[in-house]
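Appendix B. One record, verbatim.
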Amino acid sequence: MDTATVNLIAILLGRAESLRAAGNLHEALHSVNAAVQKCQHLLSPNLDDIDAFATALEKRGDIYREIRSCELARDDYRQAIDQLDNRPDRFAQIGRLHAALGAAEDELEHEEKAVHHWQKAIEFFERNEPPLLLDIAAIANNLGVVTKARGDLETAEAYFLRALEILHSLLGQEHEQTATVSSNLGALYQAARYDDQARELHMIALETRHRLLGDEHPDTAQSHNNLALALLRTGDRAWARRHFESAFASYELLGGEYASDLEAVSSNYCDFLRDEGEDELAELIEGRTRDAVESSAAY
């Protein structure tokens, strides 16, 4: 591939990325299609030609996935993986492609295929020199979520612990990714009835999210609710009440986009209030929830 053609493909891919960043996915798709077609037309056994084609396919797959055309994204990712043919100099890209392919399969509700490709992604990230630890942590967290949903709590714990170890080492606790994995691990321990461990992990996640995101962020609100449920299990009912109140107040302020979260928190809070014999307050909270949900539906 001559330098002029290489330059043209770079221009097309750069334009596609700029349009994608601006939210103009329709035009971004036109640009990346042009790059893919040009690469395909000039494809040869030359490794530079193959690399250009695989990269253009990957970028088009990403845009397809963003516009919810996951079948088309899946096809592009598969073709790019085939082109790269397990080459050691492309382990990072092959891992990234398997990770993206796993995400596409997950969105298509093909759970087994998603797990397979996420496991392959970790394999290639580990084989890269140096290993891509943050990418491994992200995929391990995904696998933890899936295996927890399956009920395989022991395997899920291993994935979450691996992700948490990496993130603590490289990013520290004061990072959103670390807080997310802490929260996920807390939810797993809650499901497994390891109440004290769940309480501590949810406390850590909440403290981090409060410092980084503030008290009106949806992730912080989620952590307040999670911690309240954990505190009920450990008998800290007065403390649980304060966290239910904080979670409810935050979701109520966040508005319609979080109506389903508000309803879930309201249900937990009202169950707690009725257990405390405060039926009138529970009815008031339920009324406020209905009003908020109906108001959001009107828009």
